[in-house]
Write a structure and sequence with these properties.
mainly alpha
Length: 136
């Protein structure tokens, strides 16, 4: 593939991925549905007390938990993107052993990152729950 076709492919892939995420937002903004649930959390199957706790009148513990969950969520997304990039690199390696080794390294690093993130979430959840039960 020459450089122009690679750029066209990258641009069209970006537009396709962006439209995958943006189209539901446009559809949800169509208008009010009189049969829709009054609470947004009921509509999307979330808990009725779904909020991140930042900028509201909540205690410090709930705010800290929300911030930790947000940060770990973003890190998890980054780890999954690394795994996907490694898979893409492997698929486009065209038999080049150096690129395959590099792609395998990326996938391994992404999986290790996910394991670390899940462990951090488990430890943070345990510690916060223990602190919450000890102070409540």
């Amino acid at each position: 593939m020459n450089k122009l076709s690679q750029k066209i492919f990258a641009a069209s892939s970006t537009v396709a991925m962006a439209s995958t995420f943006l189209v539901p937002a446009f559809v949800a903004a169509q208008g009010t549905d009189t049969t829709a649930p009054a609470n947004v959390s009921d509509k999307y199957g979330l808990d009725s007390n779904f909020n991140i706790g930042v900028g509201q009148d909540t205690d410090l513990k709930a705010t800290i938990v929300s911030i930790i969950n947000i940060i770990l969520g973003f890190l998890g997304i980054i780890a999954v993107i690394i795994i996907l990039a490694g898979g893409f690199k492997w698929m486009t390696a065209a038999g080049n052993d150096d690129k395959v080794v590099e792609a395998r390294k990326m996938i391994t690093q992404g999986v290790i990152g996910l394991v670390i993130i899940f462990a951090a979430w488990g430890i943070a959840s345990f510690v916060i729950n223990q602190l919450y039960s000890a102070t409540a």
